[in-house]
C-alpha cells in the first residue's frame, strides 16, 4: 500500500524511468477494507483439510505455537498463575514509564531535527552518519526481545554501511553519480542504499526458501520410512510412556472431535476466489482476472510449503513468496501497469501464505491446550474480519496524520520504497542504476548466500556468532540510530542474564512488551494532536559551538 502511494512515487522521482504517475493509488478506507476482505480469508480455507496431516501425522513442532501452548498451560498451575500476575504488573509498570517518557519527549520536538530523537550522544560527527541514541522505548524493547545475534547483526550492518561503505562511495560523487542530486534521488547515493539492501534481503530470502523447500521435501519423503522403523506396542510401554500415550490419544480425540468438513473448506476457498477474481481487477485494473486466477491456483501449494517450513523451523518466508509473485506478475504485465499489478499480486500472495501458516500455528497451540479446532477456526474468522476493518483504519490514521515514508521523518517505512523499486526493476531492468551499483549489489547478494551457507555448515558453537544477512540489510537504508537502540536493549538483557538468568527469562518479555506498548499507545494522542495541527511548544536542538 505504501509502495503504491503518491509520496513514495515522488520520493523515488517523477522523472525516474519506469516510475509512472499512472501507477499511483493512494490509501483509501473503502478499497483497503474491500481488498482485505476478499484476500484475507482465502489462506484460512486453503489448508484446513490438512490440519490433521500437519499437526498429528507429521507431528510438526511449530515452535512458537508450542511455546504459546506451554505458556497457556502454565497459567493453570498455582506457580504459573502467580508468575503471570507478576508479569502483568511488570508490563503495566514499564508501559506507564514508556508512555510517560514518550509524552515528555514530545514537548521538545517542535521542529526539524529537534528533541531527544535527535540527541547526538556520540558526538556531532557520528550524528551526521546517523550514529546516535534516540531514546526510543520501542527499539530498546525490540532489543530485549530479539536474540543477541539479531541485534549484533543489525549493528554490524550499520557499521559496514554508514561507517564505511557510504562514506567510501561518497568520495566518488561527480564520477560514479552526479554530485548535485537530492539526498533521496535514486540516481545518486540513495540508489546504492536501497538496491544494496534489496540484494541482501533477496539473497537471504532465496537461500532460506530453497533450504526450507529442500528440508520439506526430504522430511515428506522420509516420514513413512521413519514411522515404519519405529513401531510402538502397548507391551513395550512403561508407566510413564503409557501415561504420555494416553494424554496424546486424549489430545487426538479432542482435536478431531469437532471436524471442519473438507467440502466446507473447498467451497469457501472456491467461493472467495470467485469473488476475488471479479473484485481485485476492479480495485487494481492492471491485474487482470486470469492473473488473479493463476495466483489462486498456485497459492495453496505455496501456503503448504510455507506452513510446513514454519512447522519445522519457526521461520515464515511470507515476504519471499510475495516478492516472487511480484517479480513474476510485474514482468508478465510489463511497463504498462506492471508496477501496480506486481505490487497487488504481492499483497494477494502474502495474505494467503501468511494466514495459512498462522492458522496452522494456532491449530498446534489448540492441539496442545486441548482446545476445540472448530472454535479456533471460527475465532480466526472473526479475528480476521475484525482485522480487515481495524488494520486499514489504523493505517489510514497514521498515513493522514504523519509524513509516512519521509527519509527525514520518524516513520521512514523503508519497504514502501524497496518494494516499488523491485516492481520497477521487474518491468524496466537495471540499466538506470548508478555506476558500479549492479556489481556491488551482485557482490552483496553472493555474500548473503555464502554467509547463510557458512552458518549452516559450521558447528553450532561457531555459527551462533555468524551474523544474519537479513538483519544486516535493514540499517543499510534506514540508518544506524535504531541499531544503537537495539544494541542497548541487548546489552541490558545480557547483563540481566548474567546477574539473574531466571528473572531475565521470566520478565524480559514483559519489560520489552511494556516499553513497546507504551510508546505505541502514545502515537494515538500524538496522531490526534497532529490532525488538529497542534505542534510541540519547544525545539531542543543540538549544534556545534563553532557555528553559534
Automatic annotation (TrEMBL):
Subcellular location: Membrane
Main location group: membrane
Regions crossing the membrane: 29-50, 149-169, 189-210, 260-283, 289-308, 339-360, 381-402, 433-454, 474-496, 508-532
Cellular-component GO terms for this entry: membrane
Alphabetized InterPro entries for the sequence: OPT (IPR004813), YSL-like (IPR045035)
Keywords linked to the UniProt accession: Membrane, Transmembrane, Transmembrane helix, Transport
Bilayer topology term: Multi-pass membrane protein
Domain of life assignment: Eukaryota
Pfam family, any one: OPT
A GO molecular-function descriptor: oligopeptide transmembrane transporter activity
PANTHER family the UniProt entry points to: OLIGOPEPTIDE TRANSPORTER YGL114W-RELATED (PTHR31645:SF0)
Matches recorded under NCBIfam families: OPT_sfam (TIGR00728)
Similarity comment text for this entry: Belongs to the YSL (TC 2.A.67.2) family.
Name this polypeptide is given: Probable metal-nicotianamine transporter YSL6 isoform X2
Species of the source: Juglans regia
Lineage: Eukaryota, Viridiplantae, Streptophyta, Embryophyta, Tracheophyta
Amino acid at each position: 500500500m505504501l509502495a503504491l502511494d503518491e509520496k513514495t512515487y515522488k520520493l523515488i522521482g517523477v522523472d525516474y524511468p519506469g516510475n509512472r504517475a499512472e501507477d499511483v493509488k493512494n490509501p483509501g478506507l473503502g478499497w483497503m477494507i474491500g481488498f482485505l476482505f476478499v484476500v484475507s480469508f482465502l489462506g484460512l480455507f486453503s489448508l484446513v483439510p490438512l490440519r490433521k496431516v500437519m499437526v498429528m501425522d507429521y507431528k510438526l513442532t511449530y515452535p512458537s505455537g508450542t511455546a504459546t501452548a506451554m505458556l497457556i498451560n502454565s497459567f493453570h498451575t498455582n506457580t504459573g498463575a502467580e508468575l503471570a500476575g507478576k508479569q502483568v504488573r511488570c508490563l503495566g509498570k514499564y508501559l506507564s514509564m514508556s508512555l510517560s517518557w514518550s509524552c515528555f519527549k514530545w514537548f521538545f520536538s517542535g521542529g526539524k531535527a529537534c528533541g531527544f530523537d535527535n540527541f547526538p550522544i556520540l558526538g556531532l560527527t557520528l550524528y551526521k552518519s546517523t550514529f546516535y541514541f534516540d531514546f526510543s522505548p520501542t527499539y530498546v524493547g525490540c532489543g530485549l526481545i530479539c536474540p543477541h545475534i539479531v541485534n549484533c547483526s543489525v549493528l554490524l550492518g550499520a557499521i559496514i554501511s554508514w561507517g564505511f561503505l557510504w562514506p567510501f562511495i561518497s568520495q566518488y560523487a561527480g564520477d560514479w553519480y552526479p554530485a548535485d542530486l537530492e539526498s533521496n534521488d535514486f540516481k545518486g547515493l540513495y540508489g546504492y542504499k536501497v538496491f544494496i539492501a534489496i540484494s541482501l534481503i533477496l539473497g537471504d530470502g532465496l537461500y532460506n526458501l530453497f533450504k526450507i523447500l529442500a528440508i520439506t521435501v526430504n522430511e515428506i519423503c522420509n516420514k513413512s520410512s521413519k514411522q515404519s522403523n519405529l513401531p510402538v506396542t502397548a507391551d513395550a510401554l512403561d508407566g510413564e510412556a503409557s501415561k504420555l500415550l494416553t494424554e496424546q490419544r486424549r489430545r487426538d480425540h479432542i482435536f478431531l472431535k469437532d471436524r471442519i468438513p473438507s467440502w466446507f473448506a473447498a467451497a469457501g476457498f472456491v467461493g472467495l476466489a470467485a469473488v476475488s477474481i471479479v473484485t481485485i481487477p476492479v480495485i487494481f485494473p492492471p491485474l487482470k482476472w486470469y492473473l488473479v486466477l493463476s495466483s489462486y491456483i498456485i497459492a495453496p501449494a505455496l501456503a503448504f510449503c510455507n506452513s510446513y517450513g514454519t512447522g519445522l523451523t519457526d521461520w515464515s518466508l511470507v515476504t519471499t513468496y510475495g516478492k516472487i509473485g511480484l517479480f513474476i506478475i510485474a514482468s508478465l504485465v510489463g511497463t504498462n501497469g506492471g508496477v501496480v499489478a506486481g505490487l497487488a499480486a504481492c499483497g494477494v500472495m502474502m495474505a494467503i501464505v501468511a494466514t495459512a501458516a498462522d492458522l496452522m500455528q494456532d491449530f498446534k497451540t489448540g492441539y496442545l491446550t486441548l482446545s476445540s479446532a472448530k472454535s479456533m477456526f471460527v475465532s480466526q474468522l472473526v479475528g480476521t474480519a475484525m482485522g480487515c476493518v481495524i488494520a486499514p483504519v489504523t493505517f489510514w490514521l497514521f498515513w493522514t496524520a504523519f509524513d509516512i515514508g519521509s527519509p527525514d521523518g520518524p516513520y521512514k517505512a523503508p519497504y514502501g520504497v524497496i518494494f516499488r523499486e523491485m516492481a520497477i526493476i521487474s518491468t524496466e531492468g537495471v540499466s538506470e542504476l548508478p555506476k558500479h551499483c549492479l556489481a556491488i549489489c551482485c557482490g552483496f547478494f553472493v555474500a548473503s548466500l555464502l554467509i547463510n551457507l557458512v552458518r549452516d555448515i559450521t558447528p553450532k558453537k561457531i555459527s551462533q556468532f555468524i551474523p544474519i544477512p537479513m538483519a544486516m540489510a535493514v540499517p543499510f537504508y534506514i540508518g544506524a540510530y535504531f541499531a544503537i537502540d537495539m544494541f542497548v536493549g541487548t546489552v541490558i538483557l545480557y547483563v540481566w542474564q548474567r546477574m539473574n538468568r531466571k528473572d531475565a527469562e521470566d520478565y524480559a518479555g514483559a519489560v520489552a512488551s511494556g516499553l513497546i506498548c507504551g510508546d505505541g499507545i502514545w502515537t494515538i494522542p500524538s496522531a490526534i494532536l497532529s490532525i488538529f495541527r497542534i505542534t510541540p511548544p519547544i525545539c531542543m536542538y543540538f549544534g556545534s559551538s563553532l557555528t553559534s
